[in-house]
Design brief:
The structure is a single chain. The protein is α+β, with helices and mostly antiparallel strands and 261 residues long. It contains ten helices and nine strands. The strands form two sheets. Strands 6-5-4-9-8-7 form a six-stranded antiparallel β-sheet, with helices on both faces. It has a three-stranded antiparallel β-sheet with strand order 1-3-2. The longest helix is centred in the C-terminal third of the chain and has 25 residues, at 229-253.
Length: 261
């Protein structure tokens, strides 16, 4: 009986199930929508909403609810958010020079979490918006990050086959590792139609003391011929971000090292 109780979802787990019902497409949700998406009973959702609103984690929005600024403020205190602050002027310069979509991401286990995206309104739709979590093996930015992990460990622990987002996604561990070794040797990470049909991407890691704390990518429509200067600027951008992060570590932020961003 004790084991059954221990395995029952806690109220904290249920609160996160409710919070995860929100997404970039549904930023404001009604009570009925939250019940449906979260899969929680109406009475539980009602009780959780009351408490989360009281805490400022969720706020009222006309006839619905939205994520509260209290939660936004907490997210802004992470080391990853600080890395984004360092990177933003350089990401903006890269985006303005070429008009291409620029992203910043970090690695979490075998997934990438997108921290920033700069794009024009005319840019092709993409599934990788701010806050999105995608399988690292399907994205150039994920490959750039994985390449600086222990490749022997990856060979042992990566799921085989790996997740697939399109028919072009790399699902074989051996094939991925061959690409990662080339990237570790200095080749830019690339993907074409692997995360989304019609989209191509290249990425460069933000390397600090041998670890990829993050990565920056540039994407465009598949088949687009880019100015060679794009690759050079991408590399220079991540090199400069790395330099500024190293300066921050030397200035008293050494507790972040090696990859806590």
């Amino acid at each position: 009986m004790g084991n059954v109780v221990d395995q029952a979802p806690s109220i904290l787990s249920k609160a996160f199930d409710l919070l995860r019902a929100f997404n970039t497409q549904e930023r404001v949700m009604s009570f009925t929508e939250l019940v449906k998406v979260s899969g929680l009973p109406k009475s539980t959702v009602h009780r959780l909403l009351a408490r989360l609103v009281e805490l400022g984690v969720i706020e009222h929005h006309r006839s619905g609810y939205k994520i509260g600024l209290e939660l936004f403020q907490l997210g802004a205190t992470t080391p990853a958010a600080s890395m984004r602050d360092v990177a933003m002027p350089l990401l903006t310069g890269l985006h303005r020079r070429f008009g291409l979509t620029v992203r910043l991401a970090v690695l979490r286990q075998f997934n990438v979490v997108y921290l920033e995206k700069l794009s024009r309104h005319s840019a092709p739709f993409s599934v990788s918006g701010v806050g999105s979590i995608l399988p690292a093996n399907c994205t150039a930015i994920g490959k750039a990050l994985l390449a600086y992990e222990d490749l022997d460990d990856l060979e042992a622990f990566l799921p085989n086959p790996m997740p697939m987002m399109t028919p072009r996604s790399i699902t074989d561990v051996g094939t991925l590792l061959a690409q990662l070794r080339e990237i570790r040797g200095g080749v830019l990470a690339r993907e074409s139609n692997e995360a989304m049909p019609g989209l191509a991407c290249m990425a460069s890691p933000i390397v600090v003391r041998g670890f990829a704390m993050g990565a920056v990518s540039i994407s465009c429509r598949s088949g687009t011929r880019l100015d060679p200067a794009v690759e050079t600027e991408l590399r220079e951008t991540t090199a400069q971000i790395s330099k500024e992060i190293r300066a921050g570590l030397a200035g008293g932020r050494a507790a972040w090292f090696p990859r806590e961003a």
